[in-house]
Design brief:
Layout: E1 4-11, E2 14-23, E3 28-36, E4 45-51, H1 58-64, H2 67-74, E5 77-81, H3 119-134, E6 138-147, H4 149-160, E7 165-171, H5 181-191, H6 203-209, E8 215-220, H7 233-241, E9 246-251, H8 258-276
Parallel strand pairs: 4-5, 4-6, 6-7, 7-8, 8-9
Antiparallel strand pairs: 1-2, 2-3, 3-5
Helix pairs in contact: 2-8, 6-7
Bound molecules: ligand LAXINWYW.
């Protein structure tokens, strides 16, 4: 195992750590961040997964959201993966919404992407195994949240693993990737033109047939990507038809940025903690 700590910072009494490791699933070197609360009372600690959006690394959420205060307050660990495989030998594209920084949390099947782009398996298997060794007194309880492309990732991973994740939440998620420009571009590149193969990576399809854990979604009304990339209509319709309750909230005047995320993050943490306790 090549796991190495590259950074440790004290934040609100807990530790914000950055790790590097060689990923067998992605076949490249990767970095991720994790926050470990102080756990002065030696209690069992749950784990929240945060998945970031296009162009991000694990640093965006770590450095811009201020989540550490909430994680320490609620004594919860938080793990933040990178958004794609990385490196000179990893396929890439000049566009911001394809290639490195845009892994879409799926397992690619089309060459050259399928060599490395296996973010779903990386997160649900390899990084899961690593996380379980890093959280002292881990309670085994997990939930998942994310932003934009990461909101899509949180919903897809949560809905594919409903026994595992106790809650799912998302800021400005891509809810129907098979029908919006970001998703169509990524899925046709990573999965090929057979659109049937896209469906198992679309939250609007999964919500039709899944008994979902509690789901909360926040969407700013002044988000420049809304409604084109982030339209909620199909997801909410399919959820209603399958009797799945979704707490979908529109926030007047907010945009797509981390200012929006940091404003409503406490509400999302409270929602997760209620399910993880
Ligand atoms: N115009 C930007 C587009 C990239 C962008 O807005 N990325 C968002 C996520 S969008 C959906 O997944 C983001 O989180 N950016 C990082 C941040 O710290 O704000 C561009 O061209 O790069």
């Amino acid at each position: 195992m090549s796991l190495k700590v590259s950074e440790t910072k004290l934040a609100f009494g807990g530790e914000q750590r950055k790790y590097t490791h060689y990923s067998e699933v992605l076949q490249c070197d990767m970095a991720f961040s994790i926050y470990l609360p102080s756990n002065k009372q030696q209690k069992e600690i749950p784990l929240i997964w945060w998945l970031s959006g296009l162009t991000c690394t694990d640093d965006n959420f770590s450095q811009k959201s201020g989540f550490q205060r909430l994680a320490e307050q609620h004594q919860v660990a938080v793990i933040i993966p990178d958004t794609s495989p990385r490196g000179e030998n990893v396929a890439d594209d000049d566009a911001y919404d394809l290639g490195q920084g845009a892994g879409f949390y799926i397992d690619a099947t089309k060459q050259p992407w399928s060599e490395h782009y296996k973010m779903y398996t990386y997160i649900t298997e390899e990084l899961t195994g690593i996380a379980s060794t890093l959280v002292p007194h881990f309670s085994g309880k997990e939930s998942i949240m994310g932003h934009s492309m990461g909101g899509h990732g949180a919903l897809v991973i949560g809905l594919k693993n409903t026994k595992r994740f106790k809650a799912i939440s998302a800021f400005s998620p891509i809810l129907t990737p098979t029908q919006v420009p970001w998703g169509i571009k990524a899925f046709s590149t990573y999965l090929g033109e057979d659109q049937d193969s896209w469906k198992s990576w679309d939250a609007s399809e999964l919500i039709k047939v899944t008994e979902a854990p509690p789901i909360m979604i926040s969407q700013g009304t002044q988000d420049g990507f809304y409604p084109e990339q982030l339209n909620e209509t199909i997801f909410l319709k399919n959820a209603t038809e399958n009797n799945q309750l979704i707490n979908y909230k529109k926030e007047e005047g907010y945009d797509h940025s981390y200012f929006f995320i940091s404003t409503f993050l406490e509400e999302h943490f409270n929602f997760h903690i209620n399910q993880l306790s």
